[in-house]
Design brief:
Largest sheet: 6 strands, parallel
Keywords: Mitochondrion, NAD
Number of strands: 9
Distance between the termini: 67 Å
Order of helices and strands: HHHHEHHEHEHEEHHHEHHEHEHEH
Family: Belongs to the deoxyhypusine synthase family.
Radius of gyration: 24 Å
Catalytic activity: [eIF5A protein]-L-lysine + spermidine = [eIF5A protein]-deoxyhypusine + propane-1,3-diamine
Enzyme class: transferase
Bound molecules: nicotinamide-adenine-dinucleotide
Pathway: Protein modification; eIF5A hypusination
Protein backbone atom coordinates (compact mmCIF):
# COMPACT_ATOMS: atom_id res chain seq x y z
CA UNK A 1 0.00 0.00 0.00
CA UNK A 2 1.37 3.49 -0.87
CA UNK A 3 2.24 6.00 1.85
CA UNK A 4 -0.37 8.83 1.73
CA UNK A 5 1.40 11.54 -0.27
CA UNK A 6 0.15 14.46 1.89
CA UNK A 7 1.49 12.79 5.06
CA UNK A 8 4.93 12.02 3.59
CA UNK A 9 5.22 15.55 2.18
CA UNK A 10 4.33 16.95 5.62
CA UNK A 11 6.84 14.78 7.52
CA UNK A 12 9.66 14.83 4.99
CA UNK A 13 9.51 18.54 4.14
CA UNK A 14 12.90 19.42 2.63
CA UNK A 15 15.06 21.94 4.55
CA UNK A 16 16.55 25.08 3.16
CA UNK A 17 20.33 24.74 2.75
CA UNK A 18 22.29 25.78 5.90
CA UNK A 19 25.39 27.91 5.36
CA UNK A 20 28.78 26.66 6.56
CA UNK A 21 28.89 29.58 9.06
CA UNK A 22 26.33 27.90 11.28
CA UNK A 23 27.78 26.19 14.34
CA UNK A 24 26.57 22.69 15.16
CA UNK A 25 25.68 21.59 18.69
CA UNK A 26 28.47 19.70 20.43
CA UNK A 27 29.36 18.95 24.04
CA UNK A 28 32.87 18.68 25.50
CA UNK A 29 34.91 15.52 24.95
CA UNK A 30 35.59 14.41 28.53
CA UNK A 31 37.97 11.67 27.44
CA UNK A 32 40.45 14.38 26.43
CA UNK A 33 42.32 16.37 29.04
CA UNK A 34 40.88 19.88 28.93
CA UNK A 35 42.21 23.03 30.57
CA UNK A 36 39.68 24.86 32.74
CA UNK A 37 39.48 27.51 30.05
CA UNK A 38 38.84 25.03 27.20
CA UNK A 39 36.24 23.29 29.34
CA UNK A 40 34.41 26.57 30.02
CA UNK A 41 34.67 27.57 26.35
CA UNK A 42 33.03 24.26 25.39
CA UNK A 43 29.79 25.48 27.00
CA UNK A 44 29.20 27.73 23.98
CA UNK A 45 28.24 24.75 21.81
CA UNK A 46 26.13 22.86 24.38
CA UNK A 47 22.97 24.92 23.78
CA UNK A 48 20.34 26.51 26.09
CA UNK A 49 21.79 28.50 29.03
CA UNK A 50 25.25 26.97 28.48
CA UNK A 51 25.35 28.79 25.13
CA UNK A 52 24.22 32.04 26.78
CA UNK A 53 27.03 31.52 29.29
CA UNK A 54 29.49 31.10 26.39
CA UNK A 55 28.16 34.34 24.92
CA UNK A 56 28.63 36.04 28.31
CA UNK A 57 32.32 34.97 28.26
CA UNK A 58 32.68 36.53 24.82
CA UNK A 59 30.97 39.81 25.80
CA UNK A 60 32.93 40.17 29.06
CA UNK A 61 36.14 39.58 27.13
CA UNK A 62 35.20 42.28 24.66
CA UNK A 63 34.41 44.79 27.40
CA UNK A 64 37.60 44.12 29.32
CA UNK A 65 39.84 44.24 26.24
CA UNK A 66 38.35 47.29 24.51
CA UNK A 67 40.60 50.36 24.26
CA UNK A 68 39.84 53.69 22.65
CA UNK A 69 42.88 53.12 20.41
CA UNK A 70 40.87 50.31 18.74
CA UNK A 71 38.70 52.98 17.17
CA UNK A 72 39.66 55.45 14.41
CA UNK A 73 40.40 59.01 15.53
CA UNK A 74 37.28 61.07 14.88
CA UNK A 75 37.74 64.51 13.32
CA UNK A 76 35.82 66.16 16.15
CA UNK A 77 37.64 64.16 18.87
CA UNK A 78 38.08 65.92 22.19
CA UNK A 79 41.63 67.31 22.63
CA UNK A 80 42.04 65.12 25.75
CA UNK A 81 41.59 61.92 23.73
CA UNK A 82 43.86 62.71 20.77
CA UNK A 83 47.11 61.36 22.24
CA UNK A 84 47.84 57.71 21.27
CA UNK A 85 48.98 56.96 24.85
CA UNK A 86 45.75 58.23 26.35
CA UNK A 87 43.77 56.32 23.71
CA UNK A 88 45.52 53.06 24.51
CA UNK A 89 44.92 53.59 28.24
CA UNK A 90 41.23 54.50 27.92
CA UNK A 91 39.19 51.42 28.80
CA UNK A 92 35.56 50.46 28.83
CA UNK A 93 34.07 51.41 32.20
CA UNK A 94 32.51 48.30 33.69
CA UNK A 95 29.60 48.87 36.08
CA UNK A 96 29.15 45.84 38.35
CA UNK A 97 25.85 45.25 40.16
CA UNK A 98 24.81 42.47 42.54
CA UNK A 99 22.08 41.68 45.02
CA UNK A 100 22.76 41.54 48.77
CA UNK A 101 22.59 37.75 49.11
CA UNK A 102 25.61 37.40 46.80
CA UNK A 103 27.86 39.16 49.33
CA UNK A 104 26.44 36.78 51.96
CA UNK A 105 27.51 33.94 49.64
CA UNK A 106 31.03 33.05 48.57
CA UNK A 107 30.63 35.30 45.51
CA UNK A 108 31.98 37.95 47.87
CA UNK A 109 35.51 36.64 47.22
CA UNK A 110 34.95 36.68 43.43
CA UNK A 111 33.69 40.27 43.64
CA UNK A 112 36.66 41.14 45.89
CA UNK A 113 39.03 39.82 43.20
CA UNK A 114 37.47 42.16 40.62
CA UNK A 115 37.59 45.20 42.91
CA UNK A 116 41.08 44.46 44.25
CA UNK A 117 42.50 44.23 40.72
CA UNK A 118 40.58 47.29 39.50
CA UNK A 119 38.60 45.43 36.85
CA UNK A 120 35.46 47.43 37.54
CA UNK A 121 34.89 51.18 37.42
CA UNK A 122 31.85 51.37 39.71
CA UNK A 123 29.73 49.09 41.88
CA UNK A 124 26.01 49.22 42.70
CA UNK A 125 24.42 47.01 45.32
CA UNK A 126 21.76 47.02 48.04
CA UNK A 127 22.21 47.52 51.79
CA UNK A 128 22.83 43.86 52.64
CA UNK A 129 25.51 43.85 49.94
CA UNK A 130 27.37 46.48 51.95
CA UNK A 131 26.88 45.43 55.55
CA UNK A 132 27.33 41.67 55.03
CA UNK A 133 30.85 42.35 53.75
CA UNK A 134 31.82 44.19 56.95
CA UNK A 135 29.94 41.74 59.17
CA UNK A 136 31.96 38.88 57.63
CA UNK A 137 35.09 40.66 58.90
CA UNK A 138 33.63 40.50 62.44
CA UNK A 139 32.23 36.93 62.44
CA UNK A 140 31.58 33.98 60.12
CA UNK A 141 28.60 33.16 57.93
CA UNK A 142 28.01 29.39 57.91
CA UNK A 143 26.79 26.81 55.40
CA UNK A 144 23.49 25.32 56.56
CA UNK A 145 20.26 24.09 54.98
CA UNK A 146 17.23 25.61 53.24
CA UNK A 147 14.99 23.40 55.39
CA UNK A 148 15.96 24.59 58.88
CA UNK A 149 12.95 25.59 60.95
CA UNK A 150 12.46 29.37 61.18
CA UNK A 151 10.91 29.44 64.66
CA UNK A 152 13.66 27.19 66.01
CA UNK A 153 16.36 29.37 64.44
CA UNK A 154 14.76 32.48 65.92
CA UNK A 155 14.88 30.90 69.41
CA UNK A 156 18.55 30.11 68.90
CA UNK A 157 19.43 33.60 67.60
CA UNK A 158 20.30 32.41 64.11
CA UNK A 159 19.33 34.18 60.86
CA UNK A 160 18.91 32.25 57.59
CA UNK A 161 19.69 33.42 54.05
CA UNK A 162 18.82 30.48 51.77
CA UNK A 163 21.12 27.68 52.94
CA UNK A 164 23.41 30.02 54.90
CA UNK A 165 23.20 30.94 58.58
CA UNK A 166 24.41 34.10 60.32
CA UNK A 167 24.50 34.19 64.15
CA UNK A 168 22.70 37.23 65.53
CA UNK A 169 25.81 38.04 67.58
CA UNK A 170 27.45 39.11 64.33
CA UNK A 171 24.94 41.97 64.08
CA UNK A 172 25.64 42.96 67.70
CA UNK A 173 29.36 43.10 66.85
CA UNK A 174 28.44 45.17 63.80
CA UNK A 175 26.59 47.69 65.98
CA UNK A 176 29.58 47.94 68.36
CA UNK A 177 31.84 48.59 65.36
CA UNK A 178 29.55 50.98 63.49
CA UNK A 179 28.17 53.25 66.24
CA UNK A 180 31.45 55.05 67.10
CA UNK A 181 32.03 55.56 63.34
CA UNK A 182 28.57 57.14 63.02
CA UNK A 183 29.45 59.41 65.98
CA UNK A 184 32.70 60.47 64.31
CA UNK A 185 30.96 61.05 60.95
CA UNK A 186 28.31 63.21 62.60
CA UNK A 187 30.98 65.24 64.41
CA UNK A 188 32.82 65.80 61.10
CA UNK A 189 29.58 66.78 59.38
CA UNK A 190 28.88 69.37 62.09
CA UNK A 191 32.44 70.68 61.92
CA UNK A 192 32.71 71.02 58.13
CA UNK A 193 29.04 71.56 57.24
CA UNK A 194 29.47 68.93 54.53
CA UNK A 195 26.81 66.20 54.52
CA UNK A 196 27.60 62.55 53.80
CA UNK A 197 26.37 60.49 50.86
CA UNK A 198 25.89 56.70 50.78
CA UNK A 199 28.93 56.43 48.48
CA UNK A 200 31.18 58.45 50.81
CA UNK A 201 29.79 56.54 53.80
CA UNK A 202 30.77 53.19 52.22
CA UNK A 203 34.19 54.62 51.31
CA UNK A 204 34.68 55.63 54.95
CA UNK A 205 33.62 52.19 56.22
CA UNK A 206 36.09 50.60 53.78
CA UNK A 207 38.85 52.73 55.29
CA UNK A 208 37.76 51.98 58.87
CA UNK A 209 37.58 48.19 58.43
CA UNK A 210 41.22 48.16 57.28
CA UNK A 211 40.95 44.46 56.37
CA UNK A 212 42.10 42.91 53.08
CA UNK A 213 39.21 40.41 53.26
CA UNK A 214 36.71 43.20 52.70
CA UNK A 215 35.44 44.12 49.20
CA UNK A 216 34.94 47.71 50.34
CA UNK A 217 38.41 47.97 51.83
CA UNK A 218 39.69 47.41 48.27
CA UNK A 219 37.10 49.79 46.83
CA UNK A 220 38.42 52.39 49.29
CA UNK A 221 42.09 51.63 48.44
CA UNK A 222 41.44 51.74 44.69
CA UNK A 223 38.98 54.63 44.87
CA UNK A 224 36.26 52.65 43.10
CA UNK A 225 32.89 54.26 43.88
CA UNK A 226 30.26 52.02 45.44
CA UNK A 227 26.66 53.21 45.16
CA UNK A 228 23.82 52.01 47.34
CA UNK A 229 20.71 54.12 46.76
CA UNK A 230 18.66 52.23 49.39
CA UNK A 231 21.41 52.03 52.01
CA UNK A 232 18.94 52.06 54.91
CA UNK A 233 17.15 48.79 53.93
CA UNK A 234 19.13 46.46 56.17
CA UNK A 235 21.09 46.29 59.41
CA UNK A 236 22.83 49.58 58.54
CA UNK A 237 19.35 51.17 58.54
CA UNK A 238 18.64 49.68 62.00
CA UNK A 239 21.93 51.14 63.30
CA UNK A 240 21.21 54.55 61.74
CA UNK A 241 17.73 54.43 63.28
CA UNK A 242 19.13 53.71 66.80
CA UNK A 243 21.82 56.33 66.28
CA UNK A 244 19.22 58.95 65.31
CA UNK A 245 17.85 58.73 68.91
CA UNK A 246 21.21 58.59 70.68
CA UNK A 247 22.99 61.24 68.62
CA UNK A 248 20.68 62.80 66.00
CA UNK A 249 21.62 64.85 62.94
CA UNK A 250 23.50 62.58 60.48
CA UNK A 251 22.52 63.32 56.86
CA UNK A 252 23.03 61.00 53.85
CA UNK A 253 22.39 62.84 50.59
CA UNK A 254 21.38 60.62 47.64
CA UNK A 255 21.29 63.57 45.20
CA UNK A 256 25.08 63.90 45.08
CA UNK A 257 25.38 60.16 44.48
CA UNK A 258 22.96 59.97 41.56
CA UNK A 259 24.83 62.85 39.97
CA UNK A 260 28.18 61.11 40.42
CA UNK A 261 26.91 57.77 39.08
CA UNK A 262 25.18 59.31 36.06
CA UNK A 263 28.18 61.53 35.28
CA UNK A 264 30.47 58.49 35.42
CA UNK A 265 28.23 56.81 32.87
CA UNK A 266 27.92 59.92 30.67
CA UNK A 267 31.69 60.41 30.55
CA UNK A 268 32.50 56.74 29.79
CA UNK A 269 33.89 56.35 26.28
CA UNK A 270 32.57 52.79 26.36
CA UNK A 271 30.37 51.37 29.09
CA UNK A 272 29.51 47.81 30.06
CA UNK A 273 27.13 46.37 32.63
CA UNK A 274 27.62 43.11 34.50
CA UNK A 275 24.61 42.62 36.74
CA UNK A 276 24.02 39.64 39.02
CA UNK A 277 20.41 39.40 40.16
CA UNK A 278 17.72 42.04 39.76
CA UNK A 279 15.94 44.80 41.68
CA UNK A 280 17.71 48.06 42.53
CA UNK A 281 21.22 46.96 41.53
CA UNK A 282 20.07 46.05 38.02
CA UNK A 283 17.90 49.03 37.33
CA UNK A 284 20.10 51.68 38.93
CA UNK A 285 22.96 50.76 36.60
CA UNK A 286 20.67 50.48 33.55
CA UNK A 287 19.13 53.84 34.39
CA UNK A 288 22.58 55.44 34.59
CA UNK A 289 23.26 54.00 31.10
CA UNK A 290 20.27 55.93 29.74
CA UNK A 291 22.20 59.16 30.38
CA UNK A 292 24.74 58.09 27.73
CA UNK A 293 22.06 56.71 25.40
CA UNK A 294 22.68 53.11 26.40
CA UNK A 295 25.34 50.59 27.41
CA UNK A 296 27.70 49.15 24.79
CA UNK A 297 27.97 45.74 26.47
CA UNK A 298 25.58 44.03 28.89
CA UNK A 299 25.67 40.76 30.74
CA UNK A 300 22.75 39.95 33.02
CA UNK A 301 22.74 36.80 35.15
CA UNK A 302 19.52 36.28 37.03
CA UNK A 303 16.63 33.97 37.77
CA UNK A 304 13.93 36.59 37.14
CA UNK A 305 11.18 35.94 34.61
CA UNK A 306 9.57 38.51 32.37
CA UNK A 307 5.95 37.30 32.31
CA UNK A 308 5.11 39.40 35.38
CA UNK A 309 6.49 42.58 33.78
CA UNK A 310 9.19 42.94 36.45
CA UNK A 311 12.37 44.86 35.72
CA UNK A 312 14.26 42.10 37.56
CA UNK A 313 13.12 39.57 34.94
CA UNK A 314 13.34 41.81 31.87
CA UNK A 315 15.64 40.63 29.08
CA UNK A 316 18.19 43.05 27.60
CA UNK A 317 15.87 43.85 24.69
CA UNK A 318 13.44 45.59 27.06
CA UNK A 319 16.29 47.88 28.14
CA UNK A 320 17.01 48.60 24.44
CA UNK A 321 13.45 49.95 24.13
CA UNK A 322 14.19 52.44 26.95
CA UNK A 323 17.58 53.52 25.58
CA UNK A 324 19.41 51.83 28.48
CA UNK A 325 21.23 49.45 26.12
CA UNK A 326 22.21 50.72 22.66
CA UNK A 327 20.44 49.12 19.71
CA UNK A 328 22.83 46.55 18.23
CA UNK A 329 24.97 46.45 21.40
CA UNK A 330 26.39 43.15 22.63
CA UNK A 331 24.01 41.86 25.28
CA UNK A 332 23.01 38.57 26.87
CA UNK A 333 20.95 37.34 29.77
CA UNK A 334 21.96 34.07 31.40
CA UNK A 335 18.97 32.58 33.21
CA UNK A 336 20.74 31.03 36.20
CA UNK A 337 21.70 31.25 39.84
CA UNK A 338 24.66 33.64 39.84
CA UNK A 339 26.47 31.51 42.46
CA UNK A 340 26.80 28.76 39.85
CA UNK A 341 27.73 30.91 36.89
CA UNK A 342 29.70 33.94 38.04
CA UNK A 343 32.83 32.17 39.40
CA UNK A 344 33.10 30.33 36.06
CA UNK A 345 32.56 33.55 34.10
CA UNK A 346 35.30 35.37 36.00
CA UNK A 347 37.63 32.34 35.76
CA UNK A 348 37.15 32.28 31.97
CA UNK A 349 37.76 36.02 31.54
CA UNK A 350 39.36 38.40 34.09
CA UNK A 351 41.12 35.66 36.07
CA UNK A 352 42.71 34.04 32.99
CA UNK A 353 45.69 36.39 33.22
CA UNK A 354 46.36 35.41 36.87
CA UNK A 355 46.22 31.62 36.61
CA UNK A 356 49.55 29.85 37.04
CA UNK A 357 49.89 26.32 35.71
N1 LIG B 1 21.65 39.15 52.54
C1 LIG B 1 20.52 39.66 52.07
O1 LIG B 1 19.95 39.10 51.12
C2 LIG B 1 19.99 40.98 52.64
C3 LIG B 1 20.47 41.42 53.86
C4 LIG B 1 19.98 42.62 54.38
C5 LIG B 1 19.07 43.37 53.66
N2 LIG B 1 18.62 42.91 52.46
C6 LIG B 1 17.72 43.80 51.69
O2 LIG B 1 16.68 43.10 50.99
C7 LIG B 1 16.28 43.93 49.87
C8 LIG B 1 16.11 43.06 48.65
O3 LIG B 1 17.36 42.49 48.24
P1 LIG B 1 18.01 42.75 46.81
O4 LIG B 1 17.37 43.92 46.14
O5 LIG B 1 19.48 42.78 47.00
O6 LIG B 1 17.67 41.47 45.98
P2 LIG B 1 16.55 40.32 46.10
O7 LIG B 1 17.08 39.31 47.05
O8 LIG B 1 15.21 40.92 46.34
O9 LIG B 1 16.62 39.74 44.62
C9 LIG B 1 16.12 40.47 43.51
C10 LIG B 1 16.02 39.54 42.32
O10 LIG B 1 17.34 39.16 41.91
C11 LIG B 1 17.34 37.84 41.40
N3 LIG B 1 18.31 37.06 42.16
C12 LIG B 1 18.50 37.07 43.50
N4 LIG B 1 19.46 36.19 43.84
C13 LIG B 1 19.90 35.63 42.70
C14 LIG B 1 20.89 34.65 42.40
N5 LIG B 1 21.59 34.01 43.36
N6 LIG B 1 21.09 34.33 41.10
C15 LIG B 1 20.37 34.89 40.12
N7 LIG B 1 19.41 35.82 40.34
C16 LIG B 1 19.17 36.18 41.62
C17 LIG B 1 15.91 37.30 41.56
O11 LIG B 1 15.25 37.49 40.32
C18 LIG B 1 15.32 38.20 42.60
O12 LIG B 1 13.92 38.34 42.50
C19 LIG B 1 17.40 44.98 49.67
O13 LIG B 1 16.96 46.26 50.01
C20 LIG B 1 18.50 44.51 50.61
O14 LIG B 1 19.29 45.56 51.15
C21 LIG B 1 19.07 41.73 51.94
Amino acid sequence: MAVPSGASAAVLLPSEPISNDHISVKGPNLEKSLSLFDFLQSYTRIGFQATSFGRAIDIVDRMRKWRLSDEPLAEDEDEKYRSPEIRSETKCNIFLGYTSNLISSGLREVILFLVKHKHVAAVVTTAGGIEEDFIKCLGNTYLADFNLDGADLRRRGMNRIGNLIIPNDNYCKFEDWLTPILDAMLAEQKETGEVWTPRRFIHRLGKEINNEESVYYWAYKNDIPVFCPALTDGSIGDMIYFHSFKNPGLVLDIVQDIRELNEKSRKSRKAGMIVLGGGVCKHQIANAMLIRNGADYSVFINTGQEFDGSDSGARPDEAVSWGKIRAGAEAVKVFADATLVFPMLVAATFAKDYQTS
